[in-house]
Amino acid sequence: MAKISYTIGEVAALLGESVSLVRFWSDTYPEFIHPNRNKKGNRLFTPEDVENFKKLHLFIKDRGMTLDGARKLMKGNVEGSDNKADVALKLQNLRDMLQQIHDEI
User: According to DSSP H, which parts of the chain are helical?
Assistant: First the structure.
């Protein structure tokens, strides 16, 4: 069963990055990441937000793109980029799932 919301710490752990980087990306890309806030003011991210974080991580960290370059790809300004990003993200999720199965064996 999928989670409804993720804390900033959970997102950071999923990405293998620091909480401050997740916060920075959340503030830098408000058009793609829309955190809700709880009564304490903590950010809560939807599964869609988490997928967008994974795409940003793929573009910026894995491919070494600039912040603006990642924004253009996320907006779909480059023809076919969304499809490539979705395929790359699905492959990365599949790899993570296989690694988890391997670790359990």
Answer: 8-15, 19-28, 47-57, 67-75, 81-104
d(CA 34, CA 42): 13
β partners of residue 44? 7, 36
Beta bridge partners of 102: none
Domain residue ranges in the chain: 6-104
CATH code of 6-104, in short, is 1.10.1660.10
pLDDT above 60 for 81: no
0.90 exceeded by the pTM?
no
